[in-house]
Design a protein that fits this description.
The chain has about 150 residues and is mainly beta. It has a single domain, classed as mth639 domain like (Jelly Rolls, Sandwich), CATH 2.60.120. About 10% of the residues lie in helices and about 35% in strands. The protein contains two helices and eight strands; from the N terminus they run βββαββββαβ. The chain has a four-stranded antiparallel β-sheet with strand order 1-8-4-5. A four-stranded mixed β-sheet has the order 3-2-6-7, with no helix packed on it. The radius of gyration is 14 Å and the shape is globular.
Length: about 150
């Protein structure tokens, strides 16, 4: 069987929140919940139109490849921030509310990416200040390449 390159892109929306801190050293999280406490230091956007379970079957299959490269891009106005990492055969995509992007190899039902090159603490502080605006519209692009 011949090898073929494939790229699947998911696009969805989320919004900022006054309690976005983005200070977690190992993860980034996007949630469908509209509520965020100050303890949620890895959350960068709320009110997402998708959780891990809501991603397409095609995306999930591709991300479960050991060779998968996963990229998360957050667009906010004319600013962008991207995180790259890997997929994993152990990803379940069962959580209907959250997506977590991890620097480690730990996998839970919320995990969408492992071995990420950045965590929420690494997001430029000017970008984080803009994510603190509850009216901020965040365009999320999630891609997987295998």
């Amino acid at each position: 069987m011949a090898w073929r390159y494939m790229k699947i892109v998911e696009r969805f929306e989320a919004q900022g929140h006054v309690n976005v801190a983005a200070t977690h050293p190992t993860t980034i999280e996007i949630t469908r919940s509209s509520h965020l406490t100050k303890r949620g230091d890895c959350v960068v956007a709320v009110g997402s139109t998708k959780g891990a379970k809501g991603l397409s079957d095609e995306f999930k299959r591709a991300a479960r490849s050991a060779e998968a490269k996963v990229t998360l891009t957050l667009d906010l106005g004319d600013e962008s921030f991207s995180v790259s990492g890997s997929g994993s055969p152990w990803l379940t995509f069962l959580d209907p509310n959250d997506m977590v992007f991890r620097k480690s190899t730990f996998v839970s039902d919320r995990t969408v990416m492992v071995l990420a090159d950045w965590a929420s603490i690494d997001i430029p502080r000017g970008f984080v200040r803009n994510l603190k605006d509850s009216a901020a519209y965040v365009s999320v692009r999630l891609s997987v390449e295998v």
